[in-house]
Design brief:
about 220 residues; alpha+beta; 6-stranded antiparallel β-barrel; 6-stranded antiparallel barrel; about 15% helix
Length: about 220
């Protein structure tokens, strides 16, 4: 689990593979402190497992499902990537609940100054936008952000100078893809409601009822 607070911006050193899967080597510093093989590191919001490491690099294997669903399929040497280690129990929870399981990708439609910030508008598919709400949380390339507004085809986020300076958003331009992970709470609520609607009426009667309490001697 992650918080969406990027620890550092790393650089892709190499990408090798057959187009269906790949191995990436990433240059980093801070996230390598105390790293062990098998640890999880979010790379542009994608939870990946460290398979080897040195003092300045770590490597990860990216499977076909991940390449199909994320912007990592377009990763190339020299590209900057947002990095965050999995949170430790007892750490401050400064962002929001981020699983590192990307829902899909969006596209930067515009970016322009707005007072002391930069306003980004991100285009996304309706199946993902249904989870996005104004002033709710969204994870964009591993960054925990607050949604400004939403319409039928896109949403906007406002980026403060600190975030712009310390994430790969400083390099992002119109047309670039970004990984998106919606707030996990909305997805679980939707799934629960859908499941309940699929069940026969008699099977939906679960939980505490007067009949249950009476049958077990509480009434």
């Amino acid at each position: 689990m992650f918080t969406g607070l990027v620890e550092e911006v790393g650089v892709v050193e190499s990408v090798t593979g057959d187009g269906k899967a790949c191995r990436m080597v990433i240059r980093a510093e801070r996230v390598l402190e105390g790293v062990r093989i098998g640890d999880s590191i979010a790379v542009n919001g994608v939870c990946l497992t460290v398979t080897s490491h040195s003092d300045r690099h770590f490597s990860v294997d990216v499977m076909p499902e991940t390449l199909n669903k994320t912007s990592l399929r377009q990763a190339k040497r020299g590209q900057s990537v947002n990095l965050e280690r999995a949170m430790r129990l007892g750490d401050r929870f400064g962002g929001h609940i981020v699983s590192g399981h990307v829902d899909g990708t969006g596209t930067i439609l515009s970016r322009h100054p707005h007072a002391n910030a930069v306003l980004f508008r991100i285009g996304a598919e309706p199946d993902l936008l249904k989870y996005v709400v104004p002033r709710g949380s969204i994870c964009l390339d591993g960054i925990s952000l607050t949604v400004v507004d939403v319409d039928a085809e896109s949403f906007s986020v406002s980026i403060i100078p600190h975030t712009l300076a310390h994430t790969n958003l400083r390099d992002k331009q119109i047309g670039d893809p970004v990984n998106l992970e919606a707030d996990v709470i909305g997805k679980y609520v939707e799934r629960l409601l859908a499941w309940r609607s699929e069940q026969p009426q008699q099977e939906r009667r679960t939980g505490l009822t007067p009949e249950f309490l009476r049958e077990h001697g509480f009434l």
